[in-house]
Amino acid sequence: MADFDLVVIGSGPAGEKGALHAALHGKRVAVVEREPVPGGTAANTGTLPSKTLRETALYLSGFRQRGLFGVETTLRREATVSDFLYRERRVKGMERQRILEDLKRHGVELVYGKGALEDARTVVVRREGEPERRLTADVILVATGSSPFRPPMYPFGDPRVHDSDELLELTELPNTLVVVGAGVIGCEYACMFAALGIQVTLVEPKPELLSFLDDEISALLQQRMEKLGVRMRLGRTVEAVEVPPEPRAPIRLTLKDGERLETDQVLVASGRSANTTGLGLEAVGVKLGTRGQVEVGPEYQTAVPGIYAVGDVIGFPALASTSMEQARIAVMHAFQLGAPNRIAPVLPYGIYTIPEVSMAGETEESLRARDIPYVVGRAAFSTNPRGQIIGEAHGLLKLLFRREDLRLLGVHVLGEQASELVHVGLMALMTGANARIFVETCFNYPTLSEAYKTATYDAMDKVRTPPAR
Ligand SMILES: Cc1cc2nc3c(=O)[nH]c(=O)nc-3n(C[C@H](O)[C@H](O)[C@H](O)COP(=O)(O)OP(=O)(O)OC[C@H]3O[C@@H](n4cnc5c(N)ncnc54)[C@H](O)[C@@H]3O)c2cc1C
Ligand SMILES: NC(=O)c1ccc[n+]([C@@H]2O[C@H](COP(=O)([O-])OP(=O)(O)OC[C@H]3O[C@@H](n4cnc5c(N)ncnc54)[C@H](O)[C@@H]3O)[C@@H](O)[C@H]2O)c1
């Protein structure tokens, strides 16, 4: 008999949730983690740290209060690096503790060391100064995540040049910062630093921000970020970087069109690479894609029976939210725990820029590409009583309905609480609801959620036919 029913490599959200799900069903589970702490990118270097820093930046800058007293009013005070990082360290510490306790409570063994496959049923764990350990299992779940991609032109050894992991080791807040790459990470950090009063320039080869967003929302986000002070260099590429050895001399970046930017520090956020090197996957027959990501089937099975892979290591959409769901589905499939299960057909995206943006379902562009007639309903937070109370003057809820029967097809929110508000629409999308659900629901008042009713009436006004039951 194998030592375990399941061995998981990696203790990020995918690994942790996969392990707990199997343990809940009575399986004997071990999790292998190469770092001295559990939690992966989500707990230690990515999701939770960045969201905590955003909250800190909003608090220290008095940003939320600005709308209450007029746009020009600011309660900003000078923030130190320890102010900035204090809560990030606390939240991180609490999350690590929670994971350790959850694993222990469910009888999951946490084995520290670097895991690799010796064969399709054996994980060998190596840790400096300790003898190798071999763990055999009926099922192996690869949940090793991803790491920042580091374009070779940037000298990451210099303390002023960061990727998103190293940024959390910041020893000094810069006066000026260039962020390279306007993906989700670049946009989120650009907003945070700009809110703190740091002059931020965002350089991105693509002509627009976050091209997967609805175009109207992307353009509004760009406007709001510019208003926050982020200087946009979209459709532009960095050609050369000069980092002088004197710590106080400015770093110089030359763009392809000849513009020169001088800055105290640089954050490079130009994508991530799957953590597959040294895992021995290909040697046992697991197939890797062109960018190193593990190739999987719909229930996250690899080419080798009994080996599954979930989370960032399989690539898109590479979110903590989706990684946890993938792990649950993989474990259910591997141990045949109930009916076949697939990931939800509609996934939400929450982007913690300032303002926050969130979406689920179709965009106007995707509907036009598929020739689906639609109608748009909008509700501005400035006309919503709760929006007025909290001083949220620029928020927007945008709903996309199928014209023929007012079935909800897409939800887009920009503004305070966007990533929470989207869930009302997400549930409607999941149940295939039409406009009636919002007409007939009694919402708390005054709330931002009530904007769902306003946006629905706006759409109904445009078609002037009530939705069918
Ligand atoms: C700055 C930033 C902000 C983000 N914000 C959000 C957000 O707001 N919302 C959201 O949903 N997602 C967000 N993400 C994405 C999210 O963090 C990831 O999608 C998620 O962490 C992936 O989970 P995972 O378990 O697949 O991998 P990870 O969290 O990366 O965990 C993988 C684990 O495997 C371990 N490991 C790797 N190789 C080995 C090995 N050989 N042996 C043993 N252990 C190994 C690693 O040490 C790590 O602990 C953010 C990411 C970043 C970088
Ligand atoms: N709120 C969230 O859900 C959240 C937050 C942060 C990160 N994440 C996840 O983390 C992952 C990584 O995020 P990311 O922002 O690093 O990657 P990304 O792929 O989202 O964006 C990278 C950006 O960098 C640009 N780029 C690529 N190469 C470049 C180069 N050499 N020079 C300049 N720009 C370059 C790309 O055009 C792109 O816009 C994503 O999968 C994202 O979903 C999610």
UniProtKB/TrEMBL annotation:
SUPFAM superfamilies: FAD/NAD(P)-binding domain, FAD/NAD-linked reductases, dimerisation (C-terminal) domain. Residues 4-327 form the FAD/NAD(P)-binding domain. Its EC number is 1.6.1.1. Keywords: Cytoplasm, FAD, Flavoprotein, NAD, NADP, Oxidoreductase. It is found in: Cytoplasm. The keyword Magnesium does not apply. Its cofactor is FAD. Residues 348-455 form the Pyridine nucleotide-disulphide oxidoreductase dimerisation domain. GO terms for molecular function: NAD(P)+ transhydrogenase (Si-specific) activity. It comes from the Bacteria. The keyword Cytoplasm applies. PANTHER family: DISULFIDE OXIDOREDUCTASE (PTHR22912), SOLUBLE PYRIDINE NUCLEOTIDE TRANSHYDROGENASE (PTHR22912:SF93). Belongs to the class-I pyridine nucleotide-disulfide oxidoreductase family. Conversion of NADPH, generated by peripheral catabolic pathways, to NADH, which can enter the respiratory chain for energy generation. This is Soluble pyridine nucleotide transhydrogenase. It comes from Archangium minus. The lineage of its organism: Bacteria, Pseudomonadati, Myxococcota, Myxococcia, Myxococcales.
